Amino acid sequence: MSQAPQTPGQCSGPSSQPDPLDQRLSQNLAGIKHKLVVMSGKGGVGKSTVAAQLAVGLALAGHSVGLLDVDLHGPSIPRMLGIKGHAQVQEEQQLIQPVVLDEGLRVISVELLMPNREASVIWRGPMKIGVIRQLMGDVAWGGLDFLVIDAPPGTGDEPLTVAQNIDGAMAVLVTTPQEIALADLRKSVDFCLQVELPMLGLVENMAGLVCPHCGGQVDFLGQGGGQATAQKFGLKFLGRMPWDPRLMAAADAGRLVDLLRRDQDEAAPWRLMVEQVRDLLGEKRS
Ligand SMILES: Nc1ncnc2c1ncn2[C@@H]1O[C@H](COP(=O)(O)OP(=O)(O)OP(=O)(O)O)[C@@H](O)[C@H]1O
Ligand SMILES: [Mg+2]
Predict the structure, then answer these.
(1) Fewest C-beta atoms under 10 Å: which of 17, 61, 109, 256?
(2) Probe ligand 1: pick from 48, 56, 221, 259, max atoms within 8 Å of CB?
(3) Ligand 1 mean position, distance from CA 44 (Å)
(4) Contacts of residue 98, Cβ cutoff 8 Å, sequence gap at least 6
(5) Which ligand is nearest to the CA of 52?
(6) In a 3-state reduction of DSSP, which class is residue 220?
(7) What residue ranges do the domains of the chain occupy?
(8) Is the model's pLDDT at 125 over the cut of 80?
(9) What average pLDDT score do residues 270-281 get?
(10) Tens of pLDDT, residues 185-228
(11) Higher pLDDT residue, 20 or 49?
(12) Is residue 103 lining ligand 1, measured as CB closer than 6 Å?
């Protein structure tokens, strides 16, 4: 990584040279066709799960895909995908090499750059902005069809940095069906409108489960709130993802990728989500 992170728009005098990180950022991002930031106002609704499933599904469909985890406080992506190693830094060009998974999916998270993964790091606002800009500008993505970005909950520095630094980024919003989550979702919609971040669509996650005893549908977080909110704001609805204990177990075991790799029932709603995203972005080559 380069040395001194700067906040976006930081003024360093009228005669200053263009910021080299700004230049690397725009060069790097110019080679990426679609940039999707997965976000929600509320924590724990499944953003990282949706980001990982989307990235894996797009890679399995034959696209070149990067997955960037900008959750600096609680990065989940390396664990969910079972990534044990560290990202390497190419000494000569000072570029970070993403970890590459079997299907060619390139992954970067700040956790993959930390010598001790269990240690907590206290990130202050300007530092966060600098690190996220470096993760976007200094990673050797190498040209991509899709960059999927996993954001932490809320409407803070992380999604703001993405919105302000990535031309052409689009938001994928995630919610669970109950009113408390929907209230936070409405704030996310408002955030996107304020920072002029276009919204590709909305995923409703943890939308009921199939009872293992009677086979009936149990809507433990209510029903249909996400779809109704999507309709209200004119957002595309990207689907209802049921709560599935097999998915949670796969994520806990670092085997989330297996869900879509194997052509099984539990993958079906996720596959539909991926297909809809490809369709909306004109990438469905049938
Ligand atoms: N559809 C689902 N079925 C079963 N478990 C799920 C589902 N979606 C997410 N989970 C589980 O719920 C937990 C929270 O999911 P996840 O980490 O993706 O949420 P998040 O919104 O990214 O959280 P945070 O706000 O902390 O970043 C994880 O243990 C994950 O495996
Ligand atoms: Mg997360």
Answers:
(1) 17
(2) 48
(3) 5
(4) 66, 87, 106, 107, 108, 139, 140, 141
(5) 1
(6) strand
(7) 20-277
(8) no
(9) 96
(10) 999 999 999 999 999 999 999 999 988 888 888 998 988 888 99
(11) 49
(12) no
Instruction: Show Cβ contacts of residue 263 under 8 Å, excluding neighbours closer than 6 positions.
Output: none
Reading the block at residue 252, the tokens are 């806990």
Q: 200 and 188 in contact (C-beta within 8 Å)?
A: no
pLDDT band, residue 46 (cuts 50/70/90) = very high
Q: What is the pLDDT of residues 151-193, one digit of tens each?
A: 988 888 888 898 888 889 999 999 999 888 888 899 999 999 9
- Ligand 2 centroid distance, CA of 44 (Å): 7
Q: Is 247 in the pocket of ligand 1 (CB under 6 A)?
A: yes
Looking at the predicted structure, is the pLDDT value of residue 255 above 70? yes
Please tell me whether residue 37 adopts helix, strand or coil conformation.
strand
| pLDDT value of residue 5 | 42
Distance 10 CA to ligand 2 centre (A): 29
Residue 193 carries which side chain, given as an amino acid letter? L
CB 201 within 8 A of CB 280: yes
**Ligand that comes closest to the CA of residue 245:** 1
- Tell whether ligand 1 has an atom less than 6 A from the beta carbon of residue 153: yes
**CATH code, residues 20-277:** 3.40.50.300
- Residue 174 CA: which ligand 1 atom is closest? 21
User: 72 alpha carbon to ligand 2 midpoint, in Å?
Assistant: 10
Alpha carbon distance 8, 37 (integer Å): 18
Q: Per the structure block, which two tokens stand in for 168?
A: 């052409």
Q: Which of 261, 241, 258, 240 is nearest to 249 (CA)?
A: 258
Letter string b/e over residues 129-145, b meaning 16 or more CB atoms within 10 A of that residue's CB: bbbbbbbbbbbbbeebb
- Global pTM reads 0.91
